[in-house]
TrEMBL record:
Residues 99-254 form the Fe/B12 periplasmic-binding domain. It comes from the Eukaryota. It comes from Cymbomonas tetramitiformis. This is Fe/B12 periplasmic-binding domain-containing protein. SUPFAM superfamilies: Helical backbone' metal receptor. PANTHER family: FE_B12 PERIPLASMIC-BINDING DOMAIN-CONTAINING PROTEIN, VITAMIN B12-BINDING PROTEIN. It holds the Pfam family Peripla_BP_2.
Length: 349
């Protein structure tokens, strides 16, 4: 519940990770608007005010990648030649999704939590706030999220709490998260050789994760097989990934349901990465884990601990809900273990 000091603030969150943060801080009563990708019963009261920027009929990863590139190029062109009216700039540039500008106008937000596009422009946030003020007729604060390291994520959680006037919620929320982090990292057996993990974020073109993924893998007791300094993800060839020789090949594709990723991985891995015969292949729910830099990164850490240390932490809490093995025999065994631990059979992929 929001406190009396914050109850008059109207917040729109256009980024799932920031909506997760608001909910973790127990401030969801402040939400008046959210993105179409922000799920959870506690946010259903907030109006949906976004949609996808690309046509839903586009299916292949190559076409999706090309479509995102076209949208980005068009925005850059429009900003530089100042040809875009404020409502168009807001619609296509305020966040990672397409914003319903009329819905936003009706919501009259005081604060918009988002990831402003064109962030390479140092004045992007200022320009967007000016566009909002022009279109809405009232000042609006933008909170721009762009964490590069785990510590940035934790600092953003506190910054959101401070912005809405609830710093105590931030301190309490971070205490809970750090306690879970400590519990998860304590599980990794001492002296065990680090398993090399490669996280596939996108299939074609092939993007493999680095950045804060490297930190999460390290905290879980592993090593990122493809660690590129100061790069969130690296575009590479199939041969380069095979040369990295990961012990675990983990698909963490964003914006695609885990069941679909699993189906694709079972066909794709033997065809594209046949030389990785010793690698354990798994898929994770990239819509909720890994790619949402907020409180759910702690769930991601716990999931990684299950994957990297199956003896010390038998698959249970997160298995089949948030990740699963690609190999059917490994999957069936993990399902049985998880079901035995929970005392109920409820796992199916």
């Amino acid at each position: 519940m929001a406190t009396s000091a914050t109850s008059r603030i109207r917040v729109v969150s256009l980024l799932p990770s920031l909506t997760d943060t608001i909910c973790h801080l127990e401030l969801q009563d402040l939400l008046v608007g959210r993105s179409h990708e922000c799920e959870g019963l506690s946010t259903h009261h907030a109006e949906i005010c976004t949609s996808s920027k690309i046509d839903e009929v586009i299916q292949s990863s190559e076409d999706i990648d090309a479509a995102h590139g076209s949208v980005s190029s068009a925005l850059w062109s429009g900003v530089f030649d100042r040809s875009l009216p404020p409502e168009i700039l807001i619609e296509w540039g305020l966040g990672v999704y397409r914003t319903n500008v009329e819905a936003l106008r009706s919501l009259r937000p005081d604060i918009v939590l988002t990831q402003v596009q064109l962030a390479n422009d140092p004045d992007a946030k200022t320009k967007m706030e000016a566009a909002l003020r022009s279109f809405l007729g009232t000042p609006v604060q933008i909170f721009h999220s762009d964490p590069q390291r785990l510590e940035d994520v934790w600092l953003e959680i506190q910054a959101v709490a401070d912005l809405v006037g609830a710093p105590g919620r931030g301190h309490a929320g971070m205490t809970k998260l750090r306690q879970r982090i400590s519990a998860a990292t304590a599980v990794a057996p001492a002296g065990q050789a680090c398993k090399r993990v490669a996280c596939v974020q996108w299939s074609s073109p092939l993007y493999v994760a680095s950045g804060y993924f490297t930190e999460l893998i390290r905290l879980a007791g592993g090593k990122n097989a493809v660690d590129r300094v100061d790069v969130h993800s690296a575009c590479m060839t199939d041969a380069e990934l095979e040369a990295a020789q990961p012990d675990i090949l983990l698909y963490t594709v964003c914006s695609v349901p885990m069941t679909s990723v699993l189906e694709s991985a079972r066909e794709e891995i033997p065809r594209r990465f046949g030389r990785l015969t010793k690698a354990v292949a798994a898929v994770a729910d990239g819509c909720r884990l890994f790619n949402r830099p907020g409180p759910l990164l702690v769930d991601t850490l716990e999931m990684l601990v299950e994957l990297l240390h199956p003896v010390a932490t038998p698959p249970s809490r997160h298995y089949a809900r948030s990740w699963c093995y690609v190999d059917k025999s490994l999957h069936d065994s993990a399902v049985q273990t998880a079901s035995d631990l929970d005392g109920v059979m409820q796992y199916s992929i």
